[in-house]
Write a structure and sequence with these properties.
This protein is of the alpha/beta class and 367 residues long. The chain has 17 helices and 13 strands. The protein has 2 domains: 185 residues, Glycogen Phosphorylase B (Rossmann fold, 3-Layer(aba) Sandwich); 149 residues, Rossmann fold. Bound molecules: uridine-diphosphate-N-acetylglucosamine.
């Protein structure tokens, strides 16, 4: 029986851990799972709503860390996670993705001699100005088992000197959640509530510090979104970081009520899935949404200069257009000029809804 602590911290972690915990609960003779929430995200809309939508059990331990500078947040997670590991003495700690909580917990375990498995290992943007890139590189160096979503990730890890025996290509576990919840999401009335049912619309998400912490960049992106909203309604569920900055830069009033750009509160998993799955176009700086739109064949424009998920461009529906307003607008125009549904989903290898079980097999086989 393997005792596994599964760590969640921020919004993009929940849909990666939910299928793993569910699979562990389905194999009780082999696994005894515990869920630890660091509390990096704590708002009802950024956290609790996802536990409900994804059927994630209430965390066994909540570290209640909250917001802070990178150092404060990372240090607070480390200080509060260490006694939990000492008390539980797990066989494995499973961390996912690239948020500060991921690195903090991996670092605690490596010093205590507790084995770490990293889900979504090996992704690289090659942009060290991104805090997530630092988290990815360091977490991978510290981990004992590197579970990759795509084969480019295996190549990245090998190039960094990680032994092949520690790397396992298991596929994309986010897609397990996506396929599992697709039918339930049909009960969501979000399209009707937002008045876009049956028509064309675009969906936007933005939260990267490089896009939203800099007034000029944010202003430029907003001007592109306003232009696009002259062609079709644009729904923008807004991340707390982005809202705070729009207010601070005096851009909130200016962005609302212009064209058909509509700012709404962050949505839960099922509502958001229902919304983007019917969109004509998605514009985002999120990593996960690049993957989800690829899996469903929804055109996606990534508002960044790079992506750590190149498979979504090579095999999927993603185009990296950067943050220049004209390029964004041209990218949107090109998508809209093509017919709806002209890009059938070309799902990358092992994005098949069965990744959680392969993760569990990799853990048992690494004993
Ligand atoms: C974090 C992750 C990022 C991930 C994103 C998803 C890191 C370095 N970044 O960025 O990789 O894509 O989560 O959302 O780990 N806030 C709230 N309520 C919350 C959470 C945050 O109001 O529940 C506000 C706080 O003012 C906080 C700010 O948002 O200062 C940023 O939160 P933080 O967790 O530091 O980073 P994110 O930008 O969310």
């Amino acid at each position: 029986m393997l005792k596994v602590i599964n760590v969640v911290g921020a919004r993009p972690n929940f849909m990666k851990v939910a299928p793993v915990v569910e699979a562990m609960r389905g194999r009780p003779a082999e696994f005894s799972p515990t869920v630890v929430h660091t509390g990096q995200h704590y708002d009802e809309r950024m956290s609790d709503a996802f536990f409900r939508d994804l059927g994630l059990p209430t965390p066994d331990v909540h570290l209640g860390v909250g917001s802070g500078s990178h150092a404060q947040q990372t240090a607070a997670v480390m200080q509060r996670f260490e006694p939990v590991v000492l008390e539980h003495r797990p066989d494995w700690v499973l961390v996912v993705g690239d948020v500060n909580s991921t690195l903090a917990c991996a670092l605690v375990c490596s010093k205590l001699g507790v084995r770490v498995a990293h889900v979504e290992a090996g992704l690289r943007s090659r942009d060290r100005a991104m805090p997530e890139e630092i988290n990815r590189i360091l977490t991978d160096q510290l981990s004992d088992l590197l579970l990759t979503p795509s084969q480019d990730a295996d190549r990245n890890l090998l190039a960094e000197g990680i032994p092949a025996g520690r790397i396992r290509f298991v596929g994309n576990v986010m897609i397990d959640s996506l396929f599992k919840q697709l039918e339930r999401a049909e009960t969501s009335r979000v399209r009707e509530e937002l008045g876009v049912a049956g028509g064309d619309y675009a969906v936007v998400t933005l939260h990267r510090p490089s896009n939203v912490d800099e007034p000029e960049t944010l202003r430029g992106i907003l001007s592109a979104l306003t232009l696009i909203s002259e062609r079709l309604p644009v729904i923008f569920p807004i991340h707390p970081r982005t809202r705070k900055n729009l207010e601070e830069f005096g851009l909130l009033g200016a962005s609302e009520g212009r064209g058909r750009l509509r700012l709404v509160e962050p949505l839960g998993y099922l509502d958001f899935l229902r919304l983007y799955s019917g969109a004509r176009l998605v514009l985002t700086d999120s990593g996960g949404i690049q993957e989800e739109t690829t899996a469903l064949g929804v055109p996606c424009l990534t508002l960044r200069e790079n992506t750590e998920r190149p498979v979504t461009v090579e095999l999927g529906t993603n185009r990296v257009v950067g943050t220049d307003p004209e390029r964004i607008d041209r990218g949107a125009e090109a998508v809209l000029a093509r017919g709806k549904g002209s890009e059938p989903p070309r799902v990358p290898p092992l994005w098949d809804g069965k990744t959680a079980d392969r993760i569990l097999d990799a853990l048992t086989e690494s004993e």
